[in-house]
UniProtKB/TrEMBL annotation:
Residues involved in a divalent metal cation 2 binding: 64
Alphabetized UniProt keyword annotations: Metal-binding
UniProt-listed InterPro entries: DUF34/NIF3 (IPR002678), DUF34/NIF3_bac (IPR017221), DUF34/NIF3_sf (IPR036069), N-reg_PII/ATP_PRibTrfase_C (IPR015867)
NCBIfam families: YbgI_SA1388
Pfam entry (one): DUF34_NIF3
Protein name: GTP cyclohydrolase 1 type 2 homolog
Organism field: Filimonas effusa
One Gene Ontology MF term: metal ion binding
Gene Ontology CC entries for this record: cytoplasm
Family (UniProt): Belongs to the GTP cyclohydrolase I type 2/NIF3 family.
Protein residues bound to a divalent metal cation 1: 65, 103, 327, 331
UniProt subunit comment: Homohexamer.
SUPFAM superfamilies: NIF3 (NGG1p interacting factor 3)-like (SSF102705)
Amino acid sequence: MTVGDIIRELEAVAPAAYQESYDNAGLLTGQRQWECTGVICALDVTEAVIAEAAGLGCNLVVVHHPVIFGGLKRLTGSNYVERTVIAAIRHDIAIYAIHTNLDNVIAGVNDRIAERLGLTNRRILLPKGGLLLKLVTFVPVAQAGMVREALFGAGAGQIGQYSECSFSVSGAGTFKGAADTQPFVGTPGEQHMEKEERIEVILPAVHRQTVVAALLKAHPYEEVAYDLIPLANDFQQVGSGLLGELPSAMPEADFLALLKEAFGLAVVRHTPLLGKLVKKVALCGGAGSFLTGKAIASGADAYVTSDIKYHEFFDADGRILLADIGHWESEQFTIDLLYDILLAKFPTFALLKSKVKTNPVSYYI
């Protein structure tokens, strides 16, 4: 088992291409080809987490927040970032951060928050555009089914909760092979007309290479005609925040009490109660005030996030209940998420959850 094997499985769930442009997710220290002796999953990586990993014989820390976010100009140990990186290098420990890409997938960080609240009918609050392609190809009628199944198996044809989606229309294609060709149908040097199906499927752009490889392998022609067309459609499985519904509507005070219980909170910062029932809930782990307007537009009764600044509370404007539950508190179950992702793929490997509490914020009650 190598560090790269672990990374490959994590990125199958949350591809690196889904991280935000400002982010620094990925392998921060170490090398992919290292043999992996064990993995510790954590929310943040600090000197204490590195010491924990070293003491347990684990040379890979999988973490949500990248310890290196801006540029590092020196390594003198003058702050916790530099000291953590120095410790990781000294102990030959790889640090892999899976940050906004794990935030942005529908089964990611926000889904774990929704689970704690028992939300149903979950969907992305602000889906991303520009992440989808349409593949168009032309196949002899008799082989169309085989090619279609190959495309589905490679990850094409998924639209929301529907799989194996495609469109086909019949037509006729013409071609004339050169003298040294070996056409599947027809004769070299002679124009041939073949009844074909035009097959169209949608695919995530991150699966482009896999899907095209599957097409070329399954297609009977020597030269395969296909088009890849970028789509402006929103990708409903990838984006910021989550929207869901409580099993039953409840008073706002009861909803705030549910937050305290579900996340073990000492305090919840929130806007004034509106005297309404809470049924539809929007949420975003970490700093999510940028989605307040979207949460209001969605018709949510409450929006749960963290790191809301004083003036940003005014943005609720009497239209929604804003609840700030704390950054660490909102994302604390990401450790379990990372562990579960890896456990499903490597059930007999040394996987551990960090026992170091990295929350830098304390509350005096």
